[in-house]
């Protein structure tokens, strides 16, 4: 099962955080800008209102010719709530003050302040705030010069007192006085604070809603990406099932279709590669030659079953033999040899090597090793066989030719002609036996002379006893043949030939007074016939070649006494033609045992 990796910062989380931060920045900046612009706008509106009202009152006062009329006019004026009017003379003295900064104060009441200075309150006056507390001598000079001014006396540290002022001259050329209107900004500031709280609450609610919506949106957008990521992970692990659950028709849907198409293509390609690999592996494994793939550092990357059999994979000496083979291959690779013939113990190997090339260089080598021991041995055996046949034929032919030429030339006296003619006849018989033996071996190899029937072993062994007891007595050898029982399916003539060849050798090579034994062992699926003698034995180094044609253990022995070396070859051919096998065991000075295994 494919486990999903939980990343601390998944794409869904990143997208959600990005949208949330964007909303926070936008709403925060918008709220700050709106509150700042709103506060400044309302303060400026209030100043403009005070300025207009002061200008209007100044125009009305200027139209009146004397101060008594002006005072009566002031009593009839209705000031804006929270606005205080101060009338100053040209010297800055407070003449009249009407209205109140406090909206709950008395509207239209007039208080007289003869001979008061405008700067007194700024120097320590601690009464209620008045517009004259923020109106300086410099402001007075500006107004007397004919200007209408607005003053925003706001606190710097948030703890001082504040006032909004508007001052305008009464009349012109000359200026008869100054109209000063003042209003507290506290109501505006409270309205602005309320507006800011509303903006903050609305922003928090908007951020919460936007966070929830952005989270849902991020999950909705990234869900197909997660499905595709898990699908790509499955494909990387060899599972090419199509990605399910992506139904959108946008770029993400097209990407999912592309991934599914790629997965199907990879699946087909992997199936094709698997088939090619199995085919190639089947071909390589079926090759009888050993195939070894070496890396550039000499380690074995691949070896088929024939190669493992070559270094005897199931034997104890596998490491040593494998090391020898790898060392030979490495030496060939270093020398650049592509073909060589090497001898490994008793095996002769023909090695063909080729480099495995890649774009970056040689990656390793492939070597094919063929065991040519059997073919070389067969070739040697063929040459030895031809030489032996030639030798065996040449010797009697030369004798026959020599005797006949001597008789013809009169070298041999007439009274000895009969003796030499007998020798010629005997040599010709020996030639006939040689040809017959060779013909029998050829027939046996072709499987054309075996006519198996059911043989009673008791009768067969009794027949052997009768045939060879006389020969054994002539040689002074004791012949012991056990009593047999049971049935055997074989060719009686060919089986008799086996015993004739083996017993003849056993009797000839056993000294007088010694014993030759013939026994029988019955196994569940086969019969084992044993011919055992107490002769001089066979050397250990000659045992592997004892059944070869024309092989004689003692080559110094005469052909008359030692035979032609075809008897045991014929024995092996007959036994193998019956589906059995023959084995020999021998100890020098103790005797030789031939074991014949024949299926029932």
TrEMBL record:
Pfam families: HAMP (PF00672), HATPase_c (PF02518), HisKA (PF00512), PAS_8 (PF13188). It is an enzyme of class 2 (transferase). Residues 276-330 form the PAS domain. Residues 219-271 form the HAMP domain. CDD domains: HAMP, HATPase, HisKA. One of its GO terms (cellular component) is membrane. Gene3D superfamilies: 1.10.287.130, 6.10.340.10, Histidine kinase-like ATPase, C-terminal domain, PAS domain. The chain crosses the membrane at residues 15-38, 198-218. Its EC number is 2.7.13.3. Residues 388-600 form the Histidine kinase domain. It is found in: Membrane. Keywords: Kinase, Membrane, Phosphoprotein, Transferase, Transmembrane, Transmembrane helix, Two-component regulatory system. One of its GO terms (biological process) is osmosensory signaling via phosphorelay pathway. It catalyses: ATP + protein L-histidine = ADP + protein N-phospho-L-histidine. InterPro entries: BphY/WalK/GraS-like, HAMP_dom, HATPase_C_sf, HATPase_dom, His_kinase_dom, HisK_dim/P_dom, HisK_dim/P_sf, PAS. Its main location: membrane. GO terms for molecular function: phosphorelay response regulator activity; phosphorelay sensor kinase activity; protein kinase activator activity. The keyword Transmembrane applies. This is histidine kinase. It comes from Desulfosporosinus orientis (strain ATCC 19365 / DSM 765 / NCIMB 8382 / VKM B-1628 / Singapore I) (Desulfotomaculum orientis).
């Amino acid at each position: 099962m494919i486990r999903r990796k939980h990343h601390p910062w998944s794409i869904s989380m990143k997208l959600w955080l990005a949208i949330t931060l964007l909303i926070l920045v936008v709403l925060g900046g918008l709220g700050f800008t709106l509150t700042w612009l709103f506060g400044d706008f309302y303060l400026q509106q209030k100043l403009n209102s005070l300025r207009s009202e002061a200008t209007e009152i100044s125009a009305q006062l200027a139209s009146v010719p004397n101060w008594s009329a002006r005072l009566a006019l002031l009593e009839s004026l209705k000031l804006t709530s929270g606005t205080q009017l101060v009338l100053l003379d040209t010297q800055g003295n407070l003449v009249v003050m009407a209205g109140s900064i406090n909206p709950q104060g008395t509207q239209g009441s007039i208080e007289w302040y003869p001979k008061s200075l405008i700067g007194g309150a700024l120097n320590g006056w601690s009464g209620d705030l008045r517009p004259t507390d923020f109106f300086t001598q410099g402001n007075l000079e500006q107004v007397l010069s004919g200007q209408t001014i607005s003053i925003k006396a706001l606190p710097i540290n948030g703890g001082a007192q504040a006032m909004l002022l508007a001052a305008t001259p009464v009349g012109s050329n000359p200026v008869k006085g100054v109209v000063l209107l003042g209003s507290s900004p506290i109501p505006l500031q409270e309205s602005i604070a309320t507006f800011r709280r509303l903006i903050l609450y609305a922003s928090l609610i908007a951020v919460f809603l936007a966070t929830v919506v952005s989270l849902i949106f991020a999950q909705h957008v990234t869900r197909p990406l997660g499905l595709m990521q898990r699908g790509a992970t499955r494909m990387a692990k060899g599972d090419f099932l199509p990605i399910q659950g992506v139904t959108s028709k946008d770029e993400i849907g097209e990407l999912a279709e592309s991934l599914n198409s790629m997965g199907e293509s990879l699946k087909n390609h992997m199936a094709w590669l698997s088939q090619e690999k199995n085919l190639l592996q089947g071909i390589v494994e079926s090759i009888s030659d050993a195939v070894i793939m070496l890396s550039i550092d000499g380690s074995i990357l691949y070896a088929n079953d024939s190669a493992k059999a070559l270094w005897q994979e199931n034997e104890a000496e596998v490491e040593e033999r494998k090391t020898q083979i790898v060392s030979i291959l490495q030496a060939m690779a270093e020398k650049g040899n592509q073909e060589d013939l090497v001898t490994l113990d008793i095996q002769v190997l023909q090695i063909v090597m080729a480099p495995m090339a890649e774009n970056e260089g040689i990656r390793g080598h492939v070597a094919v090793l063929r065991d040519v021991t059997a073919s070389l041995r067969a070739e040697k055996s063929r040459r030895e066989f031809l030489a032996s046949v030639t030798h065996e034929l040449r010797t009697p032919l030369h004798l026959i030719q020599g005797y006949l030429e001597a008789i013809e030339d009169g070298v041999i006296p007439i009274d000895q002609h009969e003796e030499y003619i007998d020798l010629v006849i005997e040599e010709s018989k020996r030639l006939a036996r040689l040809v017959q033996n060779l013909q029998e071996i050829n027939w046996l190899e072709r499987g054309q002379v075996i006519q198996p029937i059911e043989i009673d072993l008791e009768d067969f062994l009794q027949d052997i006893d009768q045939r060879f007891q006389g020969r054994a007595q002539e040689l002074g050898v004791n012949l012991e043949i056990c009593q047999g029982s049971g049935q055997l399916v074989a060719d009686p003539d060919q089986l008799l030939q086996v015993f004739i060849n083996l017993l003849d050798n056993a009797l000839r090579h056993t000294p007088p007074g010694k014993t030759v034994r013939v026994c029988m062992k019955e196994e569940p699926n086969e019969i084992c016939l044993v011919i055992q003698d107490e002769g001089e034995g066979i050397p250990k180094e000659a045992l592997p070649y004892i059944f070869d044609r024309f092989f004689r253990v003692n080559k110094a022995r005469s052909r008359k006494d030692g035979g032609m070396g075809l008897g045991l070859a014929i024995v092996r051919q007959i036994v193998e033609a019956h589906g059995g096998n023959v084995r020999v065991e021998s100890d020098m000075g103790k005797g030789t045992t031939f074991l014949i295994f024949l299926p029932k």
